[in-house]
Amino acid sequence: MxxxxxxxxxxxxxxxxxxxALLAQQAKPxxxxxxxxxxxxxxxxxxxxxxxWAPCFITLWRGRALRAGCALYLKxxxxxxxxxxxxxxxxxxxxxxxxxxKLLSAVPFTPVPGTRLLAVDAEARGLLLQAITQLAxxxxxxxxxxxxxxxxxxxxxxxxxxxxxxxxxxxxxxRVDAPFADFTDFLASLQREKRxxxxxxxRRVAEAGVRFSVHHGPDIDTxxxxxxxxxxxxxxxxxxxxxxxxxxxxxxxxERMPDNWLLFIAEREGxxxxxxxxxxxxxxxxxxxxxxxxTEHVPLLHFEACYYQPLAWCIANGYQxxxxxxxxxxxxxxxLLPVRTHSAHWLSAPRFASxxxxxxxxxxxxxxxxxxxxxxxxxxxxxxxxLPSAA
Length: 391
Fold this sequence. Notes:
Blueprint: E1 3-8, H1 16-24, H2 35-43, E2 53-55, E3 57-62, E4 65-70, E5 72-75, H3 86-94, E6 102-105, E7 117-119, H4 122-138, E8 143-147, H5 151-159, E9 163-173, H6 183-188, H7 192-207, E10 211-216, H8 222-238, H9 247-256, E11 261-268, E12 271-281, E13 286-294, H10 301-316, E14 321-326, E15 337-347, H11 350-375
Parallel strand pairs: 6-8, 13-14
Antiparallel strand pairs: 1-3, 2-5, 3-4, 4-7, 5-6, 8-15, 9-14, 9-15, 10-11, 11-12, 12-13
C-alpha cells in the first residue's frame, strides 16, 4: 500500500485515538503533544489563525494506519515560541523580503522538550520532515522551524539539511539510586549557602502568614480555576502583555485532561492571594512548571509557589524530574541544573541560510562555554546530589 499525506487546518480533523497511540510510541512523549491539548488550544481560540497560529497538521497514513504526524502551524509572527528569531525576521525585512508567514512545528506557548515528529520508524520520520520542507518550498515560505525536539527529531532534521540550534533550560532531577526522602533531605544535599538561602526565603513567606493548599485536577473546582485565571492574567498585565491562553482553554483542560494538572493556592488571613499551576505526566513521573500569578505582593512568594512547593510535592510523590520552563539562571541556586534543549531550522534563501549557519556556529560555541561555566557552579555538595548531563 502507498502512503498518503494529509494536511488539515484543524487538529479535530485528525483521529485522536490514532494520534495519541502514535505519541505513546515515541522516545520523549509529553502531555502537551496529546490530541486533547492541541485541540483545546485551537478550539479555545488560543492558538488559531486569528492569533497568528494557523494549523496545518501533517499526517502520513498507510491505509487506516497513522505512520507519522506533526503539529504544524503557519505563523504570522514569532510570539509564544521561546526560541527567538526576531533578528532573522528583521534581516529579511531590511532586505525587502518577507520572513512571515513561516512554518513552525511546536507546541504553542509551551517550551517543553519532547518528540515533535511522531513516527513509527526513522523512514516515516524522514518522509514527514521531507513533506514539511516541500510544503515550505511549494508555498514559497521563508523558512520552517522545529522547536524543542528530541534527539531523533534533530538527527532527522540535520540529515535533511536543517540547522541545529541549542538553548539552555534548568531542570530538577531526583536522585536515581537514593531518591530524596523529603524536602529536608533535598536541602541537606545542597551547599551550605544555598541551603541557608532557601530556608530564609521559606521562613519569610511563612512569617508573612502565607499557607498553601494543593489541589489535583479532578478536585479543582470552577471557583479555583477562575481564581487561578485571575492570577494568570494579572501576571501578563503587570508585564504590559496579553495572555496567550483563554479561560476556555483551561475549561477544556479541566474536562479532558484533569489528571495532568496540579494547583497550588497561597492563602493569607482566609483569602486566596496567589496560584501556581503545574502540569503532570503521571506515567513518566515528570512535572512541569507552567503558570503563576498573585493578587497581593508578598516578598519571595514566587519562589515558594513556583519552586519549593512543587519540588516538595514531587519528592513526596516519587516524581523523577521537574522542568522549570524557559530560561532562568536563578533556578540553579534552587537545585535546578542546566540542560540543553534543541531546535532545527530551514531557510529557503541560500544567502540567509549561510549567514544563519555562521551565526549558529558562533552562538553554539557561546552556549558550550556558558554550560561549562554553569556546571562549575553546581549548587549540590560533591557527591550528594544528581548531576544530569547538559548535552
